[in-house]
Design a protein that fits this description.
The structure is a homodimer. The first copy, chain A, is of the alpha/beta class. Chain A has two domains: about 170 residues, Alpha/beta knot, CATH 3.40.1280.10; about 70 residues. Chain A has eleven helices and eight strands. Chain A has a seven-stranded parallel β-sheet with strand order 3-2-1-6-4-7-5. In chain A, helix 2 packs parallel to helix 8, helix 6 crosses helix 8 and helix 9 packs parallel to helix 11. The N terminus and C terminus of chain A are likely disordered. Chains A and B meet through helix 2, strand 5, helix 8 and strand 8 of A and helix 2, strand 5, helix 8 and strand 8 of B. Strand 8 of chain A pairs antiparallel with strand 5 of chain B, so a sheet runs across the interface.
């Protein structure tokens, strides 16, 4: 439950991310919409190097531009190739993303493990852009000749009864796992603006204020139950991870309620 | 580099996965295509409980059916609601997925951390289907009134210069992180069919066969270089993680080449 008292500034820069990120190579993609969504997913994760081998649609493509949601940085530098071999010629390590098991003795990685390996490789002295992942077309996926061009296979573990990912979803998961290894976002953060977590003295002040008024109102009048009731109320408020501002708000609430409550109190209401 | 010698059987069952998985609640989704892709992404990850609040398209929806790629299990049990409050009424823990920072003091989780928390919650005695994640519409995302209905916020860390995910991509990442905590797929596996990793005795047989032929051919004739050349060749072959079948193939290759090579050998070729 760690928290900080400011809205974090962006910690990543797209350009810096893209420098060593993997190239994405689509073999015979069939739908402009999917190419656009691939570009969008790539840029979401800071990747920019998109290559198309024999796309089945015209290029540039209007539908791709629409579904890319403004990922021009990716679309404007797309490169087209006739052969997969040409598209990967400058790369030193290539992965094939496929859902199907092949009758080939190859190493299969999860996307998370592939991301770890790609980071290790790009942390060495390999030149920028030397890693790539190839993805097959929507209908058939990769053929075995293309798979063999890769060093290793990436397969996303999915529901085995329904394991076919949309092309852009398959790209997203690989790109997302890549980004997660760079990203430093805290897993859990109480986001506050212009305030800070209440300190223990402020919490004690709130507890004492509340308990004093509950004593006055008769809510804690049963002596043997008082300690456990006080403890339970403190636990509830403690669990709420209050900010300093919220403590002041709640003390205002108590004041308001006691002003009102005083007029209406009768014995049945405090049981 | 651990490997097993069989193609793994599916380890997950969609129905079992779905039992405790989070419900997905879309608030005012605008495009049937996206609803269908959400259904597909959910079923890819074993989730089945999809709820729509005031969808901006007719329901059932033909475009959703098409882009769902057969995720009927999800589409056929979609429930419609007028109010977000109604759509989440049966849930005990609700998360709001949003990319935008809000001026609200709420806990923000990464998708991975949210998945860990959801698993902890569903591992307790909470009834099936008691967790849900709400997602806003394509254009505007969630409004603050809907965000406040949630216990916590989920924000996917992304390229801060281009952080708006497609709706189905946002759902996929949350569902994928949920699934990854259940999944037992080895991160790295050498997949083999009808063979097994070569053992050290088979590797030694290969090394000795190769070195004997290279001695015969004169490739290792410089005495002081022989140890390092032998070591390097062994390292190359060792790194290839050979199977028993592949060792036999390579020994066949050596036999073939020595038959051929013997006819062509001259001094320049062996330097």
């Amino acid at each position: 439950m760690a928290g900080t008292n400011r809205i974090p500034k962006p910690k990543l820069q797209a350009v810096a991310l893209a420098e060593n990120g993997p190239a994405v190579i689509l073999i015979e993609p069939q739908l402009g919409e999917n190419i656009g969504m691939v570009a969008r997913a790539m840029l979401n994760c800071g990747l920019t190097d998109l290559r198309l081998v024999r796309p089945r649609v015209d290029w540039p493509n209007e539908k791709a531009a629409r579904t890319s949601a403004g990922a021009d940085l990716v679309l404007n530098q797309v490169r087209l190739f006739d052969l997969t071999e040409e598209a990967i010629a400058d790369l030193s390590h290539v992965y094939a993303s496929t859902a199907r098991r092949r009758d080939m003795t190859m190493t299969v990685l999860t996307p998370a493990e592939a991301a770890r390996e790609m980071h290790s490789l790009s942390a060495e002295n390999t030149p920028s852009g030397s890693i790539g992942v190839i993805f097959g077309g929507e209908a058939m996926g990769l053929n075995n000749d293309d798979v063999v061009l890769a060093d290793k296979i990436i397969t996303t573990p999915l529901n085995p009864g329904f394991s076919s990912l949309n092309l852009s979803q398959a790209v997203l998961i690989v790109a997302y796992e890549w980004l997660m290894l760079i990203d430093k976002t805290p897993a859990r953060e109480l986001v506050m603006s212009e305030t800070r977590p209440a300190n223990k003295s402020e919490m004690a002040g709130l507890f004492e204020h509340l308990e004093r008024e509950l004593d006055n109102g008769g809510f804690l009048r049963v002596r043997e139950k008082r300690p456990i009731m006080v403890r339970n109320l403190r636990i509830i408020l403690q669990r709420a991870d209050l900010t300093e501002q919220e403590v002041r708000t709640l003390r205002g609430v108590i004041k308001c309620l006691t002003g009102t409550f005083a007029k209406k109190v009768d014995q049945s209401a405090v049981d």
